[in-house]
Amino acid sequence: MKVVISHHSVLKSEDDKQYVVYHVTVNYDGVIWEICKRYSEMEKLHNLLSKIINTKKFGKFPKKYLVGNLKEDKIHERQMELQNYFDNLLSEPLVPTLQEIIEFFEVNKHWNEIKNSKGGTFASTSSQSQSSQKQYNQMVTVQVESSSQEVPVYNIVNSNNSSLHGVVKSPTIPSPNSNQQAEEEKNNNNLQQNQFMAIRDHYAKDETELTFRAGNIIEVIQKGSNDRNEEDCYWYGRAVANGSQGFFDARCLDLGKNYKAPRIISVLMNDDVYDTDDSVQLDGTIKTIEIDYEAEGEGEVSVQRGQKVKILPSSRQTRKGFKLVEVLSDSCQTVIASGYVPTEYLMIL
């Protein structure tokens, strides 16, 4: 999904006040249309997204100037800033799938065109979406023809009169293969019962052994082996990241708790939501830094993308939105620094 703020217009309201409208061209899988949005609508979308994802990683949302908002140079400058904001926002693979994004950019009004361009993945029943904005709050029902996923049903709302607050989210329609999907999820959950996170590096001594790094996820296939000298310690497993298999020292794994694969959205969550994730609060968990962070306050520590850190016990966690960590060496055997790091800078490999 690509959006381009092509130009802007200065209009007058009924009470003779001027306001700016931005003309936005949306390209969704080759289907192109144009929408008009005011700055206030874009800001409202940003505020909505801030409640469910960590928008800080996409940069600050452009603010209005105290004076000169309607000057051409200021309008153009803000247009460029808004374009940069949406480029960063939509570069995250998950974001274009959020319902708030789909409704704001009116993707739901163009399901038929998108469906036809994709060769008929979706079929519209009950009614066709109309391009005219006179069709206010029209319901479009979407059903699955041959998909194993659920497709959301949306209310189409007039963009000139709508407030994203209060839009009723209709229930989803289960696909004919939803039982199969549920069975697959059950199998995946069972599979994860044998997955553990590595707490230290392991290097293969020969072609029968497995090499992995601290933080990697290892699926245990067989516990113990009669072919090894230390049969109680050497297990056989698979590195989830690349699929390679071999023997390894089980003492390199955190066997205290099965690894639970996080939902993709957990990487984007804001501080309040992210802090409720059990995997983030787990004492002693090794995390990988997602993006560089430069210490800004007392007690904080600077870290770089790819560095590994260990979360210290909950009893020592005193800052909301931060985690007290130890920064580890590449081998995870030595502590090179310690301090607070914002929660959103941490992620599970």
The main β sheet shows up as: 5 strands, antiparallel
Strand elements, count: 15
pLDDT under 50 segments (min length 5)?
120-176, 225-231, 261-282
Order of helices and strands: EEEHHHHEEEHEEEEHHEEEEE
Q: For the CA atoms, what is the radius of gyration?
A: 25 Å
- Structural category: alpha+beta
Q: What name goes with the CATH superfamily of the domain at 2-117?
A: Phox-like domain
Strand content: 15-25%
C-alpha termini separation: 26 Å
Helix content: 10-25%
Our count of helices gives 7
* The CATH architecture of the domain at 2-117: 2-Layer Sandwich
CATH top level assignment of the domain at 2-117: Alpha Beta
Task: Assign an overall shape.
Answer: elongated
Q: What is the CATH topology classification name of the domain at 2-117?
A: PX Domain
Descriptive overview:
This protein is α+β, with helices and mostly antiparallel strands. Among the domains are: 2-117, PX Domain; 195-254, SH3 type barrels (Roll), CATH 2.30.30; 285-345, Roll (SH3 type barrels). 19% of the residues lie in helices and 25% in strands. It contains 7 helices and 15 strands. The protein has helices spanning 39-50, 72-90, 99-104, 111-117, 178-192, 271-274, 278-281, and strands at 2-12, 18-28, 31-38, 122-125, 139-144, 154-155, 195-197, 217-222, 234-239, 245-249, 286-289, 308-311, 322-328, 335-342, 346-347. The strands form 4 sheets. Strands 14-13-12-11-15 form a 5-stranded antiparallel β-sheet, with no helix packed on it. A 4-stranded antiparallel β-sheet has the order 7-8-9-10, with no helix packed on it. A 3-stranded antiparallel β-sheet has the order 1-2-3. The longest helix is centred in the N-terminal third of the chain and has 19 residues, at 72-90. 21% of the residues are buried.
